[in-house]
Amino acid sequence: MSLLKKIIPPLLKLLIAGAIVTFLIRNNSEGLASTFRSIHPVWLTAALALYALHIFANAWRWHLLLKAQKIECSLSAAVSLTMQSFFFSLVIPGGAIGGDLVRVGFLTARVPREQKFDGAFTILMDRFTGMIGIFLVALLMLPFCLRYLDLESGVTAALVWLLIAGSVCGLLASVLVFRHRKLERLALYRRIKELADRVSHGMFSKVADAIDSYKDCRKEIFICIAASMVFVNLVLGAAGFLVAHGVDSRWTSAGVSIEAVTLGNIAGLLPMTPSGIGARDFFIKNILQSAGMDPQQALATALSFTMIIIAFNLLGGLFFIASPHKRRSGTPPAAGASLPRKTDRASNEVDARP
Prior knowledge:
The protein contains 15 helices and no strands. By secondary structure, the protein is mainly α. It has a domain at 39-172 and 213-324. It is globular.
């Protein structure tokens, strides 16, 4: 039963993703194969380069937060751990959250005991600033592409406005997170906090204190949000535009491409498919099609973009294989690990070497 509980959720996500992709292909199968064959490799290569830049920007953003908290981790190590988290977000249950948990495990094995919680919290803050960035891009790009969208289509209009509403709610929630101390004036919030602390053994207050530790890092938070907007989400949107232009050389609507990829990635944040596969394709295809792209070309663009994501996620597995994952000297071994036996003074001297 324990094994089934672990297997069933990821299987259900795979089935949902497979069902969505199968539905899209079956309804747009005519001419789809020839559309794939006609994709210009130059534009696809340029899109791959931009996707690599987006991953580096993700790692650099997290590295900035680590430095702000005075946690030792080189930029190259941050890039490696970020790539590994992308890999595990694809292959283990939990999607992006599962990948972040693996990154937490690898990071905390490298830092002293007293920095473990702060180190883990930088990953949560990195994810948080990333979400603020994607919500802002979705809202700021909307006026530039709204006139191109066929919002008379009930399905497209409902999907777009649903994600826009989610972006607004996400931004409002982020304001409350950074201003959470003001909520303590409310009796209801204080009761909720007390209950949460009892249930979580004080973890709620610990998280609140960790958020407060970033009050002196406002510049770094602002830079992280700006980097998320420009070098992560706008770069991803530009990569989507290059893919679309490679599929259809007449396609010049960069604003629509950026909005389609951004809203598709917001849909991909929902933990119902692995790495957003299927959900992202559905949104990108429908938004591009509503802006006038041929249905087969819109689907080819969405699926090609997903293939780029999968390729880079799998590439993260090579970083995992190449990484030694050495535990920092002085940190306790994992549960169940045996301690080295010291039989004499000489062996003690050997064991004491770094």
